[in-house]
Write a structure and sequence with these properties.
By secondary structure, this protein is α+β, with helices and mostly antiparallel strands. The chain has five domains: 144 residues, no CATH class; 125 residues, Calcium-transporting ATPase, cytoplasmic transduction domain A (Distorted Sandwich), CATH 2.70.150; 300 residues, Up-down Bundle (Calcium-transporting ATPase, transmembrane domain); 200 residues, HAD superfamily/HAD-like (Rossmann fold, 3-Layer(aba) Sandwich); 189 residues, Calcium-transporting ATPase, cytoplasmic domain N (3-Layer(aba) Sandwich). The chain is built from 40 helices and 41 strands. The chain has an eleven-stranded mixed β-sheet, with helices on both faces. A nine-stranded antiparallel β-sheet has the order 23-22-32-31-30-29-28-27-26. Strand 8 and strand 9 form a beta hairpin. Helix 1 packs antiparallel against helix 2. The radius of gyration is 37 Å and the shape is globular. Belongs to the cation transport ATPase (P-type) (TC 3.A.3) family. Type V subfamily. Keywords: ATP-binding, Magnesium, Membrane, Metal-binding, Nucleotide-binding, Translocase, Transmembrane, Transmembrane helix. This is Putative cation-transporting ATPase. InterPro entries: 2TM_P5A-ATPase, ATPase_P-typ_cyto_dom_N, ATPase_P-typ_P_site, ATPase_P-typ_TM_dom_sf, ATPase_P-typ_transduc_dom_A_sf, ATPase_P-type_domA, HAD-like_sf, HAD_sf.
Length: 1252
């Protein structure tokens, strides 16, 4: 294989140079051309010299040569490694290479061979690059390594503020050459192309080979059922592959729906403004963003940094959050100054992301570069698939490995059966060659037929039947699956991971009160540490809650962060346009104008506003204030004086599961103008603040969370929480839902310094983030701390220390600690032992899931937002929760009702309310209508449905209306209502939903569907294991019947073979419709075909059945006259041996009921088929009624053998059933170990396998 090449890209594992072979020297072509020429010459010479004697050997050799060529060619389609060997040769240097073999990291897809691009620059120096999954990698002549194409997104703030766009045509051409057009090209292949790809699968090719082989001779009836059975099997496989193609096309079209039309924008190039199409944008372009008054949303067409002005942006397409975000221009007065380097993760409040919608723009007249339309000034950072939207699309398209029926274990099972088939073929060939009268062509053909008959070509179809039955069962529960063969994987899950906010808890917050803020003006002093109601707060505290926010008004509706809306409503203040609020009645009123905002950042963990306060009254004077809120540990460093019990107070409420924000403020010197305030550096504005209290918010637990996770804990699943919330809050919620059941320990890794400004950076953002962020990360000393800080333990990275610690405690890792562990290489030891991950980024969620998979665990991930996409896609089973929205109200009705009373709830069915439908509102209670006020309009009566109209017409015509007609009318009305209601619901897949990239989507707002998926997964897994065993028994019996019995002249008639095929198909169909039990058992199903249980059960039952068959065969031989025996190649004639052998092939003891599936008696159709088959067996043995046996080409059985068949058949059934149950009892599936014993036990999914 080719030598590995130096690589500096975290997205790839390794690359190798290849050189494409010319077509005439490919190893899957020219050796066979030479073989065909030589073989043709030999055949012609033999025909001329010897004649047609032994021509059957020439035929067989020719077919064998064609088959070897076909398999060799197809191996290049099935395997990238084979393709590299057959069609390429290793390249010694980059100058000789034409292609690159790219190997991604484990669990993120398969390797591929891509072309290597070579172009010469202006100096004639060759430049090399290749594209892999929409990412471009370029070769550095200095380092000799390939790196991912970099965009200008990490320059200094001063450089961006001084940007003047691409100044010349040469600069534009160079940028176009480097980054290409701004396009999302997601090609959707044709139905025929995708179907051809599906039909190249190994199993399908094998089925076609079998049909072609059976067509060589009149030997159609060997498999039972004749040509119609084989063609029917082929038809079923083609039909299934067509359904898979249709689903793939639908998924690709859903992804293409993310693409937005590229509209023309005003771009500053070459020193002048011009309208340029959106797909021609290049990094470095300076553009003007303006939303016109037409009401159409402006779609951002690339990632841009806002230089002047402000925007209100809907980022639901990327984050799944329906709350619009306020974006402000970046300012060199922020901490770090003009020399600070941009970090998109940290400075996202200044970045417009591609694909998002701008709802409102506000230009800035004082901007350094005037825009022609008074729009917002921005500079393009990234285009195409380099944008945040492009990353989401790449995650959806490429970030998982394909799961299908063609897995390794299935091939190993076939290889196991093939051993028996080869033994049977050798038996036939050995004794056939000893008979000089045997037709040699038919003899060899018979041996090949044994091989193809023992290896079941219908295996994929049988497995597909089971998976499709489960797919339908889940769809009835409003759970939809885009990758059906992941359903059996759900039965192997050992570890269930959950997001917190919006998944386990509601994303609708309640302001419980404020603590530590002091007494309100003229009020009594509150008790120390007691919560104060939001209606009776000091003016300074209420001012921070009301005016330190980023709420805006769009179409006369206040939108923004739900937490800020709740706080504003709780204190009773009202908004005034875009930049102001007014205090409530009942005291001195004041108007607060927001002059400048320092945006909230997840890295800085705080936000601030500079406001002008103007009390109402003739003698009042205007004053200026800085208002700040943020994480308590961050605000602590900004306070002029830290109150006593500061840390103990906020930790006490955080440990109770509350979200705690610290509030602070400071009065600024008099005489400052608005321009002076905007120019005030952030570090100066936020210094020396006065403490104003802790705001305590709560997010209620969803009612289904605790019982669902309790059931998962009782069934032996490991539970993990992965959230961006604070560690103390996460641990409290985890304890309420059975994730934390032992004393908790939190690994603390405080960020260097105070965490302030661009230089401080959040360590959690570095893991998997931008290179600039990673450079900011320092690894501080780590220690384990209990939530109440009563216990502190030193950190030890050793595996034994991790297991010992997890044996007695539930561990919690923060994002900073996880980044530190990843930097030291200790993450693989601690991540599988951790119960709670807090303050983690979306990239770290994905990292956690991959490490869990690498430890051999079967992982389920449940989340509700697009920030969970990487983790959902990386898990074995990803479950996206898509809560059905509230019905939207007509704007006219909203307007009429809005004049009568205020509503404290979000309008238009926001995601927060959709997740908490029916929960009591946290806002103020609506006042009753004033006397004499008009009552709210009554909703008009719905129009009559089609059923009601039908009854009305019948009544008018005087026709009698029967109860049956009334039931029919009601059914018609219900169907019409359901169809009408469906139009009001959101689509199952839409931009912004986690369902865009999740294999499972539950149209519910709770985690309860996870139980349904796991139950159905276990049911499907058990069913597929049963099918493997039954097919194994059938194939092993076929090996015996097609070898020993065939040489004895025993064969099946057409009716017998057809009946056997129909009964087998019916048995599989009925087994596949087994239903799971309502309760998940702690006992686990066997996850592997090659386990002691499966092999003991399979071989034990085969021994029982084959012993019964051989005994009855010898008994029939002794009783049947010799003249009635048949030769192997003779035509079929009914006889005693054939009758006995046909009746003794029964397998009905493999059905597995409790504790996974419903008992056999409750699987109605399968139970009926077993009962009727048993009755038919008894009637045929006893020859009752007379003449029935002739339908199946059977002969009368002597009376002395009838008793043997009935008694020994019953004993064989009991013996096989006993072996099955003993195997289950002796070799149970391993249970999931506790966290501390994880590294000392073997898990059901098996250890991580090295990627080939």
């Amino acid at each position: 294989m080719a030598q590995a090449v130096s690589l500096e890209a975290k997205e790839l594992s390794s690359i190798s140079f290849l050189k494409q072979r010319p077509r005439n020297v490919r190893l899957d072509l020219w050796p066979f051309v030479c073989a065909y020429v030589a073989w043709s010459g030999y055949v012609l010479w033999r025909l001329v010299t010897i004649g047609t004697e032994g021509f059957y050997l020439i035929q067989l050799a020719t077919y064998a040569l064609l088959a070897i060529h076909a398999v060799t060619f197809l191996s290049g389609v099935w395997s990238v490694g084979s393709q590299a060997r057959l069609r390429f040769r290793p390249a010694g240097s980059i100058s000789q290479a034409t292609h690159v073999l790219v190997v991604p990291h484990a669990f993120v897809g398969t390797r591929d061979i891509v072309p290597l691009e070579q172009k010469a620059d202006a100096a004639g120096v060759p430049r090399y690059a290749f594209s892999f999954r929409k990412l471009r990698f370029v070769h550095s002549a200095d380092t000799g390594a390939f790196t991912k194409l970099k965009y200008p997104s990490h320059d200094t703030v001063g450089a961006y503020l001084a940007a003047t766009g691409l100044g010349s045509e040469a600069a534009t051409a160079a940028a176009l050459e480097r980054w290409g057009d701004n396009r999302f090209e997601v090609p959707v292949p044709s139905f025929a192309a995708l179907l051809a790809d599906q039909l190249m699968a190994p199993f399908f090719c094998f089925q076609v080979f079998c049909v072609g082989l059976w067509a060589l001779d009149e030997y159609w009836s060997v498999r039972g059922g004749g040509r119609y059975y084989s063609l029917f099997t082929l038809f079923m496989l083609v039909t299934f592959e067509c359904t898979v193609v249709v689903q793939r096309l639908k998924n690709l079209n859903d992804v293409r729906a993310l693409q937005t039309p590229k509209e023309a924008l005003s771009v500053y190039r070459g020193g002048k403004w011009a309208k340029i199409p959106g797909d021609s944008l290049l990094p470095g372009d300076v553009v003007s963003m303006l939303r016109d008054d037409s009401g159409n949303d402006l779609v951002v067409q690339a990632d841009m940094l806002l230089l002047a002005g402000s925007c209100i942006v809907d980022e639901a397409v990327l984050t799944g959050e329906s709350t619009p975000q306020w974006k402000s221009a970046i300012d060199e007065n922020d901490e770090g100054g003009a020399e600070a380097r941009l970090s998109i993760k940290r400075d996202k409040a200044h970045v417009l992301f591609g694909g998002t919608k701008i709802l409102q723009t506000t230009g800035e007249r004082a901007a350094r570069l005037k825009t022609p339309d008074n729009g917002c000034l921005a500079v393009v950072l990234r285009t195409g698939f380099g944008t945040a939207q492009g990353r989401l699309m790449r995650t959806i398209l490429y970030s998982t490995e394909k799961v299908s029926a063609n897995n390794v274990e299935t091939f190993l099972f076939i290889a196991f059966l093939l051993v028996w088939a080869i033994a049977a073929s050798g038996y036939v060939l050995y004794y056939g060659l000893a008979d000089p009268n045997r037709d040699r062509f038919k003899l060899v053909l018979n041996c090949i037929m044994i091989l193809t008959s023992v290896v079941p070509p219908e295996l994929p179809m049988e497995l597909t039947i089971a998976v499709n039955a489960s797919l339908l069962a889940l769809s009835r529960l409003r759970i939809f699956c885009t990758e059906p063969f992941r359903i059996p994987l759900a039965g192997k899950v050992t570890t269930c991971c959950f997001d917190k906010t919006g998944t386990l808890t509601s994303d609708h917050f309640v302001l419980e009160g404020v603590v530590g803020c002091g007494a309100p003006e003229g009020g009594p002093e509150p008790e120390a540490g007691a919560l104060q109601d939001a209606k009776s707060l000091p003016r300074a505290t209420a001012r921070v809650l009301a005016a330190c926010q980023s709420l805006v008004q769009v179409d006369k509706e206040t939108i923004g962060d739900p937490l800020e809306k709740v706080a504003l409503e709780a204190v009773g203040w009202t908004t005034l346009g875009q930049q102001g609020v007014r205090s409530k009645d009942g005291g001195p009123r004041e108007t607060v104008e927001i002059v400048h905002r320092y945006a909230f950042s997840s890295t800085l963990k705080r936000m601030s506003t500079l406001v002008a306060v103007e009390p109402e009254g003739a003698t009042a004077t205007k004053s200026h204030w800085v208002l700040t809120k943020g994480a308590p540990e961050v605000i602590r460093g900004d306070l002029a004086a830290v109150p006593p019990q500061y840390d103990a107070t906020h930790r006490r409420f955080a440990a109770q599961g509350a979200r705690v924000l610290a509030l602070a403020c400071r009065r600024l010197p008099a005489g400052l103008a608005a321009a002076d305030l905007r120019a005030l550096p952030r570090e100066r504005a936020e210094a020396g603040l006065d403490f104003a209290g802790f705001a305590v918010f709560r997010s209620p637990l969803k009612p289904e969370s605790e019982p669902t996770l309790g059931a998962l804990r009782a069934s032996g699943h490991q539970l993990v929480m992965i959230t961006g919330d604070a560690p103390l809050t996460a641990c409290h919620v985890a304890a309420a839902v059975h994730i934390v059941v032992r004393p908790a320990l939190v690994l603390q890794a405080p960020a260097p310094g105070t965490g302030r400004g661009r230089k401080g950076g959040e360590g959690g953002a570095a893991a998997g983030g931008d290179a600039a962020d990673s450079a900011l990360l320092a690894t501080p000393p780590l220690e384990w701390v209990s939530p109440d800080e009563s216990l502190r333990l030193p950190f030890d990275p050793a595996l034994e220390a991790a297991a010992a610690l997890a044996a007695d405690h539930d561990l919690c890792l923060t994002g900073d600690a996880l980044a530190a562990l990843a930097a030291t290489g200790a993450a693989p030891a601690y991540v599988p032992l951790t119960s709670v991950f807090a303050r983690v980024t979306p990239d770290q969620k994905e990292l956690v899931v991959k490490i869990l998979r690498g430890a051999g665990l079967g992982v389920l991930m449940c989340g509700d937002g697009t920030n969970d996409v990487g983790a959902l896609r990386g898990a074995h089973v990803g479950v996206a929760l898509l809560a059905p929205p509230e019905k939207k109200k007509k704007r006219g009705d909203e307007k009429k009702r809005g004049d009568d009373k205020k509503r404290g709830e979000d309008k238009k069915g926001s995601r927060a309310l959709a997740a908490t439908a029916g929960a009591p509102s946290s806002g103020p209670v609506a006042a009753p209508a004033a006397p004499g006020a008009p009552s709210p309009p009554t909703a008009p009566a719905p129009p009559p449905g089609p059923g009601a109209k039908m009854l009305e017409d019948m009544a008018k015509k005087g026709r009698p209306i029967t109860p049956f007609m009334r039931r029919m009318a009601k059914a018609m009305d219900d169907m019409a209502a359901a169809q009408a209601g469906a139009g009001d619901e959101v689509a199952m897949v839409k931009p912004g939903d986690a369902s865009m990239a999740s294999p499972f989507t539950a149209k519910q707002g709770s985690v309860a569907p996870c139980l349904d998926i796991l139950r159905q997964g276990r049911c499907t897994l058990v069913t597929t294991m049963q099918m493997f065993k039954i097919l194994g028994l059938l194939c092993l019996s076929s090996a015996y019947s097609l070898s020993v019995m065939y040489m004895d002249g025993i064969k099946l008639g057409d009716m017998q073979a057809t009946l056997a095929g129909v009964l087998t198909a019916g048995m599989f169909f009925f087994i596949s419709h087994a239903k799971p039990l309502a309760t998940l058992s702690r006992q686990r199903p066997h996850a592997r075909v090659f386990s002691a249980y499966t092999l003991v059960s399979l071989l034990g039952q085969f021994a029982v059945h084959i012993s019964f068959l051989m005994f009855m065969q010898r008994t029939a031989h002794a009783m049947m006259p010799r003249e009635e025996r048949q030769e192997p190649d003779s035509e079929f004639k009914p006889n005693l041996i054939n009758t006995i052998c046909f009746l003794t092939m029964t397998f009905a003891v493999n059905y597995v009921g409790a504790p996974f599936n419903t008992p056999l008696q409750e699987n109605r159709f399968f139970a009926l088929s077993v009962n009727w088959s048993t009755l038919a067996y008894v009637l045929l043995v006893l020859d009752l009624p007379r003449g029935l046996r002739t339908w199946f080409s059977l002969v009368a059985i002597p009376a002395e053998m009838q008793g043997q068949l009935l008694v020994l058949g019953g004993l064989a059934y009991l013996a096989a059933g006993t072996i099955e149950r003993m195997a289950r009892a002796m070799f149970p599936a391993p249970l999931v170990p506790e966290k501390g014993g994880l590294h000392r036990s073997r898990t059901p999914m098996g250890p991580r396998k090295k990627q080939q």
